């Protein structure tokens, strides 16, 4: 079975600084994979590289990004664009700014449907109404006629989720979709993503720094640190028996009601190579791993 | 379907009202002044009391009707050739409005196209367009317009051409900067991620966000176009000599400013009112058009 997304040895540099230093990662059809790491670990950069949204001074220096077996980096621009929004979709981080402020909700979703599926205006309108109902917006017909600033952040995120799943994508990249929302809305959004991905049969790459979210919805996870994969595997395995000291530190830094959180200390750059060495593999250093 | 139609019909009136409220007094005053100017320009043949060229040497340099020695036949008095000042002022508005509308629109078209181009492509495209703008703007505009009008020859077309040639840079520069800003916004990235090409991205997503800014620029530019036309006609290189313009009226009035100050004062008042009106109108409209309320 071809992986929905297969990233192999991806290296990305901003100017002279390497942000991704040989990342490999698979997302199988229908899989939900969590991609975690502290700020600056390169997790968003990976998502952006897949979407072809790298900032201007950034370049891919090595590696391959294959979507359903086809290399996205080698593909013609027009072909890549026809995949975006249709086969590969994004749920962006900040719902407050990710919708065009001067276009009504109905038109934004409608344009997407007409662009990719070639629907007529009327069919697009009908489909848009369905999509909004699917993301639990109660009066879709009223919301269609509203501008983004006239609805709440949670509602906007639901509109963006509806747009992401609108064309039955094979892969949805969720770039910290819950960080900008408050906790009560977060839960609803997660449930929604879970429900829609099942209905549309999409795989999800869930970029987040929230291990709680990963535990809740991801079957497998990848831990990224300073542009390199430190650990990956089934979520339960990684969380219960972390094989790397960094993962354990990440877990210890997660706020919990029953114990004080430990501060996650950044690793000084000159020690990063040491951190990557085998010495920090917990399964090889039993003394540190005793939790 | 019917429900949708009702929903979309039901929402706008309140939005329209909210927009008008956001526009505030600027919008009201601006609209009234601009409307007066445009109405005067369109309907002048209907209500102008006299032919603007008709001379009545027996009643030259009459003061406005309410001053001593004024004649009710000439509401705002007459000039040194006995031509009706009111008629000449309103006929001049016609030239002014025409120049303002056409020149500003053409300058906007060129400027927006180049600005979008520079702002979205960046790199050497941006560099060459930006340097061109810099060089262009280094020329003193009035001097440039006088040179142009002299080279192309007098007439309405050359006045318009001169304004367009000079002032497209104003649009290009602002639109370039704003395009760059809008492209860094998340919604632009989101639009790229749904697979829009650059051209569609600019047309469907970016351009609508530039409209409030463009409206302000257009209004300001119309004011400037009126001023440039006044300057050119003041020095006598605008439209043909027998067409009344505010600039030529000022030039004529200047020679007899001690005997008949109103002949010079009235066109100046017209110019000031039009330019202020256009600026207020543009400003108010920008506030009213912006769906995201910004204080």
Automatic annotation (TrEMBL), chain A:
Its main location: membrane. One of its GO terms (molecular function) is ATP binding. It is a peripheral membrane protein. It is found in: Cell inner membrane. Residues 5-251 form the ABC transporter domain. Keywords: ATP-binding, Cell inner membrane, Cell membrane, Membrane, Nucleotide-binding, Translocase, Transport. PANTHER family: ATPASE AAA-TYPE CORE DOMAIN-CONTAINING PROTEIN, OLIGOPEPTIDE TRANSPORT ATP-BINDING PROTEIN APPD. Belongs to the ABC transporter superfamily. Involved in beta-(1-->2)glucan export. Transmembrane domains (TMD) form a pore in the inner membrane and the ATP-binding domain (NBD) is responsible for energy generation. This is ABC transporter ATP-binding protein. It comes from Bradyrhizobium diversitatis.
From TrEMBL, chain B:
SUPFAM superfamilies: MetI-like. Residues 93-281 form the ABC transmembrane type-1 domain. It is a multi-pass membrane protein. CDD domains: TM_PBP2 (cd06261). Keywords: Cell membrane, Membrane, Peptide transport, Protein transport, Transmembrane, Transmembrane helix, Transport. It is found in: Cell membrane. The chain crosses the membrane at residues 28-48, 96-122, 142-166, 210-240, 260-281. It comes from the Bacteria. It holds the Pfam family BPD_transp_1. Gene3D superfamilies: MetI-like. InterPro entries: BP-dependent_transpt_permease, MetI-like, MetI-like_sf, OppC_N. Belongs to the binding-protein-dependent transport system permease family. This is ABC transporter permease.
